């Protein structure tokens, strides 16, 4: 266990932080921990709060660590455990953490822009970003194993988005599809400009710069247009 922690410190730290926040939420709001008010007070995404009080811009990051119920926590926790280890192995602890946060930030910026009246939370924005990042480097790179993993992740993305669409068409959506799409965009763009630890991506400098500029344009643009 200790050896595994040393190999994947960022993944375990993210899991621990997510669990601590969840348990604190249960203790403070016992019996009401899934209510919109509880999620909001624990850092959930609520665009109107940022629009009315710009100092709450931290809500672009905090929702990544807040989960609505045990099922939500377990599903995202298990996904983070397996996908996080793959991504951390590719990018290293520091860059993996940056990738995780930047993907989540883009997802929450999309939620702020498109659905500012909805209270939402969860690591799915970041997790979709991790999936997209591995797909991108698998597609561009020359590593056969990475290409295979990327193809498998692409199938998982498609299945999840199909499930998201069915949830949306149900008339009572419980999933933020715009947050997931924003996470995909954020993770995909970040993968293009963030150097990997284990493999050479083979991505030209011009494309890295373009991806970085595009990330900043989308993230800053959605936030600015939402609060101005």
What does this molecule look like?
- This protein is an all-alpha fold and about 230 residues long.
- It has ten helices and two strands.
- It has helices at about 1-5, 10-30, 35-40, 45-50, 70-90, 95-115, 125-140, 145-170, 175-195, 205-225, and strands at about 45, 120.
- The protein has a two-stranded antiparallel sheet.
- α5 packs parallel to α7 (about 125-140), α6 (about 95-115) crosses α7 and α9 (about 175-195) packs antiparallel against α10.
- The mean pLDDT is about 90.
Summarize the structure.
By secondary structure, this protein is an all-alpha fold. Helices cover 72% and strands 2% of the residues.
What can be said about the biggest beta sheet? Answer: 2 strands, antiparallel
Strand and helix order: HHHEHHHEHHHH
Distance between the termini: 48 Å
Number of strands: 2
Task: Produce the secondary structure layout.
Blueprint: H1 2-7, H2 9-28, H3 36-41, E1 45-46, H4 47-52, H5 70-91, H6 93-114, E2 119-120, H7 124-140, H8 144-169, H9 177-193, H10 205-227
Antiparallel strand pairs: 1-2
Helix pairs in contact: 2-5, 2-6, 5-6, 5-7, 6-7, 6-9, 6-10, 7-8, 7-9, 9-10
């Amino acid at each position: 266990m200790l050896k595994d922690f040393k190999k994947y410190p960022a993944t375990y730290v993210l899991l621990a932080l997510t669990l601590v926040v969840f348990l604190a939420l249960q203790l403070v709001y016992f019996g009401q921990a899934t209510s919109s008010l509880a999620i909001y007070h624990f850092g959930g995404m609520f665009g109107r709060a940022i629009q009315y009080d710009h100092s709450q811009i931290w809500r672009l990051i905090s929702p990544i660590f807040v989960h609505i119920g045990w099922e939500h926590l377990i599903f995202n926790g298990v996904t983070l455990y397996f996908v996080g280890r793959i991504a951390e192995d590719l990018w290293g602890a520091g860059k993996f953490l940056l990738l995780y946060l930047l993907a989540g930030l883009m997802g929450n910026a999309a939620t702020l822009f498109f659905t500012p009246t909805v209270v939402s939370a969860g690591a799915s924005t970041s997790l979709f970003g991790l999936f997209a990042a591995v797909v991108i480097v698998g597609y561009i790179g020359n590593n056969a194993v990475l290409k295979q993993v990327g193809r498998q992740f692409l199938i998982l993305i498609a299945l999840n988005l199909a499930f998201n669409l069915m949830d949306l068409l149900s008339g009572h959506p419980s999933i933020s599809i715009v947050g997931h799409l924003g996470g995909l965009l954020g993770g995909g763009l970040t993968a293009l400009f963030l150097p990997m630890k284990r493999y050479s991506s083979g991505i030209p400098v011009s494309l890295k710069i373009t991806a970085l500029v595009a990330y900043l344009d989308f993230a800053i643009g959605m936030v600015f247009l939402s609060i101005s």
